[in-house]
Amino acid sequence: MTPPFPGRINRVREKIATQGLDAALITTPENVRYLSGFTGSSGFVLVSSATAFFITDFRYKSQAAQETHGLEVVILKKTLVDEVARIAGETGLKRVGLEAKNVTLDLHDRVIAAMPDAELIAVIDLVEEFRIVKDAGELDKMREAIRRAESSLTALLPRLKPGLPEREFALMLEEEVRRAGARKIPFDTIVASGLRGALPHGVASDKKLESGEMITIDFGAEAGGYFSDMTRTVFLGSSPTAKQQEIHDTVRKAQDAAIAAVKPGVPMVDIDAAARKVIVDAGYGDYFGHGTGHGVGLAVHEQPNASPQGKGEAREGMVFTIEPGIYIPDLGGVRIEEMVLVTATGCEVLTSFPRELRCL
Ligand code: ZN
Ligand code: ZN
């Protein structure tokens, strides 16, 4: 049987060959899922030029056989390290790559102890580099994850009322997202109302919503292992103050500028700079302290980053967020977050939920 993603395994093989490695042990859960299709919570992939093993424990025996067909399933008898050492001994693997961003010092030391003749090489972004550009199947799942989030917010916005605790709304939203089909909630839902809106990551609290407040809602959904991430700031009441409206308008313009900047070949730092310029020019530069966007996929935060430290250029098939914000202590905050897909000529905004400052 062929593996679920033979192309992905082969790309890893090509890459480890160019790095002079005999094999790579993949331990990062998202990378394991990307290469094997395995949806359980404990599994590892060992790829060499000739073989590809999927290593898991007894709990996942039948699930691994169903999901990772084509990979040679190994059920742990003792520990992961023992199995890797056994396979390396039997198949002559000497130079083995370990994922530097995921492997703990403890695991590293245990592998060295179990494989004294092997050479362990730190590999960085071995699989992440492939995950950065999405294929059609991945995009279908991401569109569905976005749809699940948007339909949930649409259903629940009428429930935002003065007196409702932030946490209560977050709970309703997470329940609705799961009802829509998501198996996971990608991160703690942010509901930041009034002055709490000045906290960029104001996870929902016991604070009750009040009339006249802006409320920033940042949440996500999931479909087929892929996440979505969106933010809207809404107004509770009939008419926001001029200042509230101005901040919201500025964030929207910043977002428009960043979206207009996205096309293949544009440095990621320039996409961030496009949004930042609008906010700085409006006099709010001191109140926008985070990057403009991040990649989304099997992880809710992944490469690329549209930030002042962002690396590389936009490439067709990348999916990332555009989420500028303004956070003013003693006043509150606004963030609007869209997901965009880089196309051949620019980008497609995947999120369709209206962006204007909705009055509820
Ligand atoms: Zn978000
Ligand atoms: Zn985000």
Can you walk me through this structure?
The chain has 360 residues and is α+β, with helices and mostly antiparallel strands. The protein has 2 domains: 5-131, Creatine Amidinohydrolase, Chain A, domain 1 (3-Layer(aba) Sandwich); 136-349, Creatine Amidinohydrolase (Alpha-Beta Complex), CATH 3.90.230. It is built from 10 helices and 18 strands. It has helices spanning 6-18, 29-36, 61-67, 80-91, 105-114, 128-131, 136-156, 166-179, 242-261, 268-281; strands at 23-26, 43-48, 52-56, 72-75, 95-99, 119-123, 190-193, 214-219, 222-223, 226-227, 230-235, 293-295, 302-306, 319-322, 325-328, 332-335, 338-342, 347-349. The chain has a 6-stranded mixed beta sheet, sandwiched between helices. A 3-stranded antiparallel beta sheet has the order 7-8-11, with helices on one face. A 3-stranded antiparallel beta sheet has the order 14-17-18, with helices on one face. It is elongated. The protein starts with 5 loop residues before the first helix and ends in an 11-residue tail after the last strand. It binds zinc ion (2 copies). One zinc ion binds next to loops.
